[in-house]
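User: I'm new to structure prediction. If I give you an amino acid sequence, what do you actually give back? Let's try with this one:
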Amino acid sequence: MDHSSLNKTRLELKLGLEITIDPWKELIIHEVLELKFDDWVTQVIATARSAGGGIPTIFWADGIAFHFSTFPDTETTVQEKIKGKIHYSSVTFAVKEKFERQVVKEGGTVNFTDVGHNEIFSKLISKLKAESKFKGN
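Assistant: Good question. You get back a string of structure tokens that encode the predicted 3D arrangement of the chain. For your 137 residues, that looks like this:
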């Protein structure tokens, strides 16, 4: 047995740990709301101002700006997560072809984060684009 194999064996014996990556199996969205981009940004700014300020952040990927809400972790939702199911209570989205880190409008600012590298979000965006009423407008 060489030195590296001996160290690996000692590490396995010491840790006794197997690491498993178990990707999500399903994303279930209970409500989808599409808005026109400018209307949504105005609404997001107004909501942030009424909540005491701060600069809100919206996700963006492949021409779609979006935000999702989840359910609180209860015994039921945690059991669903363990089964590989993510539940979003709602997803709000708008067509926004060009990525900008920040949009400034009268009354406030909204930041955007490009999350296109996330596989789940990429699949979600494909579905939202297919359902969009406003694409091309």
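You can read the tokens as a compact description of the fold. Here is one thing that stands out. The first strand starts at residue 26 and ends at 29.
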